Amino acid sequence: MISEQMAELTRSGSAIRAMFEEGGRLAAEFGRENVYDFSLGNPSFPPPDAVRRAIGDVLNGAESSYAHGYMANAGFPAVRDAVARHLNALHGTSFTSGNIIMSAGAAGGLNVVLKTLLNPGDEVIAISPYFVEYGNYVSNYGGKLVVVPANRANFQPDPAKLAAAVTPATKAVILNSPNNPTGVIYTADTIAALSRALEKRQAELGISVYVLSDEPYRELVYDGSEVPYITKYYRNTIVCYSWSKSLSLPGDRIGYVVIPDEIDDYPLIFDAACIATRILGFVNAPSLTQLAVARCLNEKTDIEAYGENRRLLCDGLKSAGFEYVLPQGAFYMWVTAPNGDDAAFAAAAKKYNILVVPGASFACPGYARIAYCVSRDVIERSLPAFEKLASELGLRKD
Amino acid sequence: MISEQMAELTRSGSAIRAMFEEGGRLAAEFGRENVYDFSLGNPSFPPPDAVRRAIGDVLNGAESSYAHGYMANAGFPAVRDAVARHLNALHGTSFTSGNIIMSAGAAGGLNVVLKTLLNPGDEVIAISPYFVEYGNYVSNYGGKLVVVPANRANFQPDPAKLAAAVTPATKAVILNSPNNPTGVIYTADTIAALSRALEKRQAELGISVYVLSDEPYRELVYDGSEVPYITKYYRNTIVCYSWSKSLSLPGDRIGYVVIPDEIDDYPLIFDAACIATRILGFVNAPSLTQLAVARCLNEKTDIEAYGENRRLLCDGLKSAGFEYVLPQGAFYMWVTAPNGDDAAFAAAAKKYNILVVPGASFACPGYARIAYCVSRDVIERSLPAFEKLASELGLRKD
Q: What sign for the dihedral angle of Cα B135, B137, B138, B142?
């Protein structure tokens, strides 16, 4: 009787959610300290102290009278202005509050933008491996997800393959860098080549193809890596940002959408995205949290701690004989499944109380994702278990 | 190029939003103190002090480690359990955390439930006058809104008319009591008669028709009026609640959905609603605010202050010669447009810097809504302007 799409989703479940529940079961059986749950991208580090102070300041300060009230659906004008100025200082852009819509994280922002853009049957391209929710977000609005595999040598998108996938029905391309699940940052050369390829296809077909840049991991980078700001490379770019990871606020649901003046059909798209925010039931991004993050634009979570996790895990897995992509950003490690069987790999790992997500969950079998946004302690205690797993799998040690 | 639904919405705009902008324009021209803006349901009173204390306690207490983190999409189990126990104490129900999903207000909850229930072409019945967003919420999921007028004598729904509107395509009926825009509370007799009529139609047609009880105004009642709890009258009831008005937290986006065990297709609907919360991009209701409201379940905004506004406005408008429905709940007054022309009434009111929303915005021309969730001062200063307006309109004084 209920929605057919939703009934189907209840049957198929979520592999990541199943892992999460399996973690709970194993913890109950073996003790939480003997389970190494790398399944969820849930930051283990608390927000910077500045966030708590900012919330307290808003509650007790001059802003308290409207900290809980309605405002324009796009968000508080002063908050949007602060975000625009912050981005301009970082990237040399020229945004104003008229380019910013506050959102319930990047997930909320992507839904608002896809609701704004898509007619039933429109196509949205994603680069695999990709965050599995993209498929649901696109089908929420009757769209069709078209998958283009990344280059398996380096997990950068392939401009020629992307261009070939663009059809008259293409409305958008979702890019996600630093990438979940690979940890790869798309290089400036890649972005420039993708942009040229898309500009050419737009002109050939007489259509507008919007790049939706999904950026929850922008600030989580290692070794001083740069993450190119895509609006500077490709005119029809819309950015969906989240503070979930950069400030460890995933439960608070706060982020923003950037809709530059230069895109085709601005301001129609800006107006429609404000209305989509309202009618999807978000109404506005949470008000108190909007005011708090506006005071923390230069704050960041403890990236050194994630970097130390990364170092420990890379060293341990390399020494055990695993192959992986060296993460440049985010907090994910993309490991090659021995013999190419990711389901068997995840099942073998579970025998040692190690929970990883098979690559099939990201439309890329043959690999597995390790989310190392856990405490350092979990990493350290997991390494002997990884050694035993490598042994069982017959991996050759260094 | 963009979504046709959204492009149409940008063209048609929102009459309430237009009023809001007109209020800003008038305030700039005549001074904020000389404009009487009754257009928006935005509570003017701050949240109870207990809310601020609760947020501070969560930030500084044992809960701080997870106050900003992910949890199950349905919300923190302890929060859901507290909500269930609170409802049981109030209404003699037997809910558990397994019946509660925390939501981004009632707007978020309604979207989650409609996403869960509707297949394209399904019909959802609303009683006019109704909150205009219902039409957008329903069409978000391909549904068709079917409008059944309330009884014009008392603005109670008419059970016979409702029964006649139920077809094999009917999936849900939205009820909203205390009602926006009329301020009417649906009586126990009305609810009982509606329930009998719907049970009969369900049986005749062999379908499940869910009542979605939209309850943001449940706590805002005057003269000790009772608001019947609809799950106790009609088995297939789903409740969408919000703390936006009862705790003056509209910007924070916090509420819950009640999905009782007894409804047809529980637990499929519960599971699907959790997934809908995730894939629509809400992911979960804002985490810090979940924990805070769970500590304030017995707190309420200053209902006496709304009651005083109501008294002043009723006395003033009666004395000026206006006809209206005496509000039993919410903070809206439903005024008969002289000569039945609500557009002309709103236009005439604007000449005296009084902003009201024409009934056409609620699918009920011939009336206008006055939102009296303003400061008492605004009411007092507006009364001479209402007198002048009545004079211009030729209303006979008492």
A: positive
Whole-number average pLDDT of chain B:
95
Q: Give dist(CA A192, CA A198) in Å, integer.
A: 10
Residues of A in contact with B2 (CB under 8 A): 116-117, 265, 268-269, 272
Q: Quick: pLDDT tens for A293-316.
A: 999 999 999 999 999 999 999 999
Write out pLDDT tens, residues B102-150. 999 999 999 999 999 999 999 999 999 999 999 999 999 999 999 999 9
CB contact under 8 A, B281 and A105: yes
pLDDT number for residue B18:
74
Chain B 65-84, CB below 8 Å of chain A: which residues? Answer: 65-71
Confidence at B64, pLDDT banded by 50, 70, 90: confident
Task: Give the mean model confidence (pLDDT) for residues A337-353.
Answer: 95
Indicate the length of chain A as a whole number: 398
Tokens (6 digits) for A256:
């923003």
Choosing among B279, B284, B287, B291, which should be mutated to test the A contact, i.e. which has the most A CBs within 10 A?
B279
Residue B66 has pLDDT above 90, yes or no: no
Q: How confident is the model at residue B82, as a pLDDT?
A: 98
Residues of B in contact with A116 (CB under 8 A): 2-3, 6
Query: CA B3 to CA B258: how far, in whole Å?
Result: 32
Per-residue pLDDT at B12: 80
> Three-class SS string for chain A?
CCCHHHHHHHHHCCHHHHHHHHHHHHHHHHCHHHCEECCCCCCCCCCCHHHHHHHHHHHHCHHHHCCCCCCCCCCCHHHHHHHHHHHHHHHCCCCCHHHEEEECHHHHHHHHHHHHHCCCCCEEEEEECCCCHHHHHHHHCCCEEEEEECCCCCCCCCHHHHHHHCCCCEEEEEECCCCCCCCCCCCHHHHHHHHHHHHHHHHHHCCCCEEEEEECCCCCECCCCCCCCHHHCCCCEEEEEECCCCCCCHHHCCEEEECCCCCCCCCHHHHHHHHHHHHCCCCCCCHHHHHHHHCCCCCCCCHHHHHHHHHHHHHHHHHHCCCEECCCECCEEEEECHHHCHHHHHHHHHHCCEECEEHHHHCCCCEEEEECCCCHHHHHHHHHHHHHHHHHCCCCCC
> CATH assignment of B51-294?
3.40.640.10
Does A398 have pLDDT greater than 60? no
What is B4-48+301-392's CATH topology?
Answer: Aspartate Aminotransferase, domain 1 (3.90.1150)
Backbone phi and psi for residue A148, each to the nearest 5 degrees, phi listed first: -115, 120
**Predicted-complex ipTM score:** 0.96
Q: Please report which confidence band the pLDDT of residue B355 belongs to, taking 50, 70 and 90 as the band edges.
A: very high
Q: Work out the angle at residue A192's Cα, subtended by the Cα atoms of residues A127 and A331, and round it to the nearest 5 degrees.
A: 50
Q: Kindly state whether A269 is in contact with chain B, defined as any CB-CB distance less than 8 angstroms.
A: yes
**B207: which strand partners?**
none
**Which pair of tokens denotes residue A93?**
């852009």
Does any CB of chain A come closer than 8 Å to the CB of residue B18? no
* Residue extents of the structural domains in chain A: 4-48+301-392, 49-294
pTM for the model stands at: 0.96
Q: Assess whether the region B4-48+301-392 and the region B51-294 belong to the same CATH fold.
A: no
Q: What is the pLDDT of residues B146-171, one digit of tens each?
A: 999 999 999 999 999 999 999 999 99
> What single letter denotes the amino acid at residue A138?
V
Residue B62 has pLDDT above 80, yes or no: no
CATH topology of domain A49-294: Aspartate Aminotransferase; domain 2 (3.40.640)
Within the 197-216 window of chain B, which residues sit less than 8 Å (CB to CB) from chain A? 207-208
Q: Which of A3, A9, A286 sits opposite B252 (nearest CB)?
A: A286
